[in-house]
Amino acid sequence: MLRENSDLEALTRSRFEVYEGTNSSAHITRLRESENLEEAARAVLKCLGELKRPYLSEFEEKLLSFIEQECKAGD
């Protein structure tokens, strides 16, 4: 049984992080399969995909967004 509101917040956050991690992982995989990807971007995506935590930091999210924008620009 949850004792405090903070327990509920922690549980909700951890479930969100697992979902977010799964979502980010699939997103990284799709981008890595893009034919428009330069080697440097492929290396960054490889590193992001190998992270041992279920979420990306704000900086890592920005990197992922930038790579995605560049991939779309090359289409």
Summarize the structure in words.
The chain is mostly helical and 75 residues long. It is built from 3 helices and no strands. The protein has helices at 5-32, 39-49, 58-73. The longest helix is centred in the first third of the chain and has 28 residues, at 5-32. It is globular and about 30 Å long. The termini are far apart.
* Structural class assignment: mainly alpha
N-C termini distance: 52 Å
How large is the share of residues in beta strands? under 5%
Number of strands: 0
Query: How many DSSP helices?
Result: 3
How many strands, which pairing sense, and closed or not: the largest β-sheet?
Answer: none
| Portion in helices | over 70%
Q: How many domains is the backbone divided into?
A: 1
- The H-and-E topology, N to C, reads as HHH
Radius of gyration from the alpha-carbon trace, in angstroms:
15 Å
Shape by Cα distribution: globular
Uncertain stretches of 5 or more adjacent residues = 11-19
Average pLDDT confidence is 75
Short summary:
The protein has 75 residues and is mainly α. It is built from three helices and no strands. Helix 1 (5-32) packs antiparallel against helix 2 and helix 2 packs antiparallel against helix 3 (58-73).
List key phrases describing it.
75 residues, 3 helices
